TrEMBL record:
Name of the protein: Bacteriophage phiJL001 Gp84 C-terminal domain-containing protein
Bacteriophage phiJL001 Gp84 C-terminal domain boundaries: 188-263
NCBIfam families cross-referenced by the UniProt entry: phg_TIGR02218
Biological classification of the source: Bacteria, Pseudomonadati, Pseudomonadota, Gammaproteobacteria, Pseudomonadales
InterPro entries associated with the record: Phage_phiJL001_Gp84, Phage_phiJL001_Gp84_C
Pfam family for this entry, one: Phage_phiJL001_Gp84_N
The species this protein was found in: Halopseudomonas phragmitis
Length: 273
């Protein structure tokens, strides 16, 4: 029988929901069944305690349309949030099928926005659908003395790879990472930049640098989740001022701010400007 036929039948339906989480090439596959489900070369795992959701809602309201998945507290994909928000997006694709079929039907696409543990033995994964994302307001690009680009993005154009410093971790103290490999740079060189470290499968986690002084890299949010030894990639930061853009990165031609912007608005109601 087809999916539609079993979906509309009186007693032939055996619904199963498939959940596919992904970050880069990393995959976490789960199903709502009581046994593993194989689709082609992929195996959607059944976990002890079960994985479930209250259903997909499409109301037009982003908060009401949040898709929540409940699973055991030790669910592998949820552990990415134990030390804080992952650096890169974790995408979710949901499929529906009936047990015995091999033809899952697409149901929802989105991303994981947060994870919490409402009980010692349960986790709740909150997801936002792509439809809800499109209703979110976009960023504005205002007139500003500072640059409105992000260092290293296509609008900025600076290639950060030649500026990267490969550093060995000497110690961490919960607030900062210490490495002798950053002492050759003036204090503040890495302030506003970030560190990153490998987590496997070509993926990296990152943490932004709040302040740099001598061997110390003070991290925004502390060092939870940062390895206590090994190597880091350290990237410089920018204060988005024209002088820094020119002297530090030689990128003044692509500066997106207006350094000589008048301090008063011509629309402040004063006839004399």
């Amino acid at each position: 029988m087809t999916f539609d036929a079993r979906e509309s039948s009186t007693a032939q339906g055996q619904p199963v929901r498939l959940y596919s989480f992904s970050r880069g090439v990393m995959r976490w596959l789960y199903c709502s069944a009581d046994r593993d489900i194989s689709i082609g070369t992929q195996v959607y795992r059944a976990v002890r305690g079960g994985v479930s959701d209250p259903g997909i809602r499409i109301t037009g309201d982003a908060r009401s349309d949040r898709f929540e998945i409940t699973g055991p507290a030790d669910l592998s994909v949820a552990q990415l949030w134990r030390a804080g928000q992952p650096s890169n997006e974790v995408a979710l694709t949901v499929f529906d099928m009936h047990y015995g079929d091999n033809d899952p039907v697409f149901a929802l696409a989105g991303r994981v926005s947060s994870v919490n543990w409402p009980a010692l033995d349960r986790c709740r994964i909150v997801c936002v659908s792509r439809d809800a994302e499109m209703a979110e307001p976009g960023l504005t690009d205002p007139y500003s003395r500072t640059c409105t680009a992000v260092l290293g993005d296509p609008r900025c154009g600076v290639d950060l790879n030649p500026l990267r410093v490969d550093a060995q971790i000497q110690s961490i103290d919960g607030i900062a990472v210490y490495s002798a490999d950053v002492t050759g740079y003036p204090d503040g060189w890495f302030t506003g930049g970030y560190i990153e470290w490998p987590i496997g499968s070509g993926e990296f986690d990152r943490r932004f640098i709040e302040a740099h002084s001598s061997t110390q890299l003070k991290l925004l949010g502390g060092t939870a989740g940062v390895p206590v030894s090994g190597s880091l990639r350290v990237y410089p930061g920018c204060d988005f001022l024209f002088g820094t853009c020119t002297s530090k990165f030689g990128n003044g031609d692509r500066f997106r701010g207006i350094p000589n912007l008048e301090g008063r608005s011509p629309f402040d109601g004063n006839a004399v400007w």
